Amino acid sequence: MPAASAPPPVADGGDGIALAGADAGAVRTPSAADAWGGPRTGREATLSDRVVDYRIQVRLDAITHTLDGRERLTWRNRSAVPVSVVYLHLYLNAFRNTGSTFFHEKHDLGLDAGGDTPVRRDGWGWIDMTSVRQAGRAVRQSFVQPDGGPATDMTVVRLDLPQPVAPGQRTTLDIDFAAQLPRVIARTGWFGSFHLVGQWFPKIAVLELPGERGATAPRWNAHEFHIDSEFYADFGNYDVTVDVPSDYRVGATGVLQGAPETFHQRTRYRYVQDDVHDFAWTADKRFAAPLRGTWAGTGSPEVAVQVLYPPEYVASAGPALKATQDALTYFSRTLGPYPYRSVTVVIPPYNAGEAGGMEYPTFFTAEGYAKVPPGSSTAAALDFVSIHEFGHGYFYGILASNEFEEPMLDEGLNEFWDQRMLRDGHRRYDLLPPWLNRVGVHLPVTDPFVFERLGAQVDDPSDPTGASAWNRLDASGYGSVYSRTATLMRDLETELGRPALERAFKDYYTTWKFRHPSIADLRESLVASTGQRALIERVFDQQVYAVHKLDDSLADLTSEPVTPLAGRVVEAGRAVTRGEEETEALADARTAAWDKAHPQAAPGAGPFAWRTTVTVRRRGAAVPQTLVVTFADGSTRRFDWDDALPWKRWSFIDQRRAVSAQLDPQQRHFLDANKLDDGRRIEGDHAAARRWSADILALLQALQTALVNL
Hints:
It comes from Pseudoxanthomonas winnipegensis. This is M1 family peptidase. By secondary structure, the protein is an alpha+beta fold. It contains 13 helices and 36 strands. The chain has 4 domains: 1-37 and 49-234, no CATH class; 407-548, Orthogonal Bundle (Neutral Protease, domain 2), CATH 1.10.390; 550-561 and 609-710, Immunoglobulin-like; 563-607, no CATH class. Helix content is 25%, strand content 28%.
């Protein structure tokens, strides 16, 4: 595939190293073989090529919901040039005021983040670096907006270093910071005594080198905090000490080091985790005693799994633990061994739902339910969110793609692998609420990809699947990242076969774990594993780097006997002239005589051959299609359609009578806008409606969810 020209980076003027532009995603050029230090084979001393080291001490004031922190950040210059300017993310400033990029997008696009309730006086959140020093010398700070956001956005800060960092060398920044947590919004913040502390500390951006994710020269990848964007950071080590009131329970990324230290009614917890790119924690005095379990798998250390939950959601703790253990088994088997020693699951309390459904390394939040009847829609929701958030530990965590620029590599691929797990495990759920189940009304479903079609914008797609998180038409465009990617990958799996697709994903994981792959790297992994370059490039060009509606339909089907000709014809050597009615009567007589003489004849047999005509229409992009015509005796005939013409007609004569025709009989194209028009029967078509009744079931689920959330 010819490489597209790289988008121009944003000029900086500091040390000649530019900032990546807002359109730097949807990478077409594969990364170099030695990108990010080369593949991690397991023979290296560390899991990742560690670039950063964070040592943080933080104190929580549980009354004012503020943080007082000290951070020692050590960063390694991987480039071949001196670096005198670095960039840090201050994500909490997205909630500082309505001048942030986050709130501008919330207002301009009408997007929902944290609900429509106006932010109260105590609802804002922010972070200030009160001191930044390099080797004891003060560092100058200035805010920048790399994506062209409002000048009032303060989520990216530029630091002009007194001492440049030489190639291959490290520098240490000593940072004092003060932060106000927001009332829970966008999966961080506080509610009552509950605190989810995510994206809470000054965090250095990523310096990408030539040959990494489409970069042609060193560039800083530092985007503003957009309303629909998540994160991207270097791998490294975290050593974090959390100081909280002694009546609070704490959970965090990583492994607790020794016994907590208590003094003056406060307790310090120290957590350490190497080879990750983020750190989050939670604290609440209402947490019940954790529910704990373990998991062991080939190639992995023994994993300690714990669930932190409030008393009102005790019923959710066991199912969340079981789903996490099941996900550990599936992801380790189908992608690669889980490399860490812990997983912490947090169930937020009642009224803190905005904190649910968020992922961090070795740590995620699920959702809470007071009752979780087995096999119910509630059980299905809790099962899925637990699997989904754990799955991010692979696609967001270990593979560590750029969630700003290429969210399909995390949200989309993770959604696909989660649904694949549910499908392969033959999980069966009831979509109706438990109160209907109790009176004997059920609506079971087993194919989760039918639901994904509902969110995949199959009828009117607005954005390429590979577009950035924020450059989309509206909220549904970002939502389609999940469902459209999952549906696209499901279609690709149907084309390639399940074993081939799973082998390709395992190779992708093995090659790119701890290395920040791009969309182009995913594409090339799929090609290398399957050998199907033409197919995979067609899919990526059509639906990842661009977007096209698919809409093929079976427009008409006829199958009629080839009866004697009316008019002037020659029969048995002499000319005969017959009218149309006379000819029709002659055909009827021959048919009646034949039926009498052949009482045991097979369906569709008779004295005449049959002319079958099938017409198909194309109202969208071209995809390879298969048409299968079924005859009265049960036999079939196959036709292939692989051109860009808007319609196609086949007409043929056969001794068999056609009774039905079906486009896409293997269901390879779930992205098609309307699967109900893929089939026809000559005596009325009920089969297609039966096949796609699951769409109606999924719609009922969506309606049910809407009613529950009113």
